[in-house]
Amino acid sequence: MSEPLPLSVLELATVGSGQSTAHALAATTRVARTADRLGFSRLWVAEHHNMPAVASTNPPVLIAHLAAVTERIRIGSGGVMLPNHAPLVVAEQFAILEALHPGRIDLGIGRAPGTDQQTAAALRRDPAALSADDFPQHLIDLLGLFGDPRVEGGLAERFRATPVAETVPQVVLLGSSDFSAQLAGHLGLPFAFAHHFGGPNVLTAVGLYRETFRPSSVLEEPFTIVAANVLAASTEAEARRLALPGQLMRLSLRLNRPRPLPSVEEALVDPERAAAEAMPSNAIVGDAAGTVEQLRRLAADTGADELMLSASTHGVEERVRSLELVAGAWGLPARAAA
């Protein structure tokens, strides 16, 4: 019997109404330990800034913590927004993480700001740095700092991420556009598509990635990760009830009115509930069997080599239970707790 397609987890360290950042980070720690125990392949945290509902502002710091409290699962960024940082800083941070946890660190790289333009300007300090035009060169510099033999010149002429690095993190290019797909293909990197953003062009992007893929020193064949909003519960009705706070949060972001994630009780009486439920969505919500059926269809349609599950819920219990239900129905090889 063949092994099931790998499943992974994307965590935002969600802050709900009435919750603190400490509460959100403790919940993410529990999710990471659960994913490790259940046999998920990796857990990523995303870089977001100035968002009341998201506590994962600094992926390297959070990755260091999560890798230290888990045993087997790969821990990484989904992603680090490279235009916000100097490539040498990112390389040094992730070289240290890799040295601490060899073979378990992923560096997912994105080119979006992960925030609004004013916050991006505060992060980058130079208005000229708000453009992403330099992103390909910065990405190549980053690869060179990790010792990629294809990179000549640039920062790699004078620097290395560590003086004697024995292993390097796996670099994955993230995206929701044709640009990122083709860049990942040209550089021979794994590509993670943000299907959970709700965009319709997943098939076009993964197709372009495979068409433009060139084998590299890190990857001989294309490798595609597709991220999706996924929430499972004991019944479809219960799953839809628990998913409502996440729908309201996505509506608030679309309207540029970010807010903490409401509780289910608050969401049920929220005046914008109808508008949130009416938004187009490709989220996968249902009981275990229905959720897994939709995930298998997504994998077949996209040819994904791995699926990554993201869920925004007010309570951590709902996220943990969703992972347990999906892992059991999918057939992940659970690992004994230490």
TrEMBL record:
UniProt GO cellular component terms: cytosol
One of the record's GO molecular function terms: oxidoreductase activity, acting on paired donors, with incorporation or reduction of molecular oxygen
Coiled-coil regions, chain positions: none
InterPro entries: Bact_Lucif_Oxidored, CmoO-like, Luciferase-like_dom, Luciferase-like_sf
Database matches in Pfam families: Bac_luciferase (PF00296)
Domain Luciferase-like: 10-305
Domain of life of the native organism: Bacteria
PANTHER family: LUCIFERASE-LIKE MONOOXYGENASE (PTHR30137:SF6)
Family recorded in the similarity comment: To bacterial alkanal monooxygenase alpha and beta chains.
Protein name as it appears in the record: Luciferase family oxidoreductase, group 1
Naturally occurring in which organism (per UniProt): Geodermatophilus sabuli
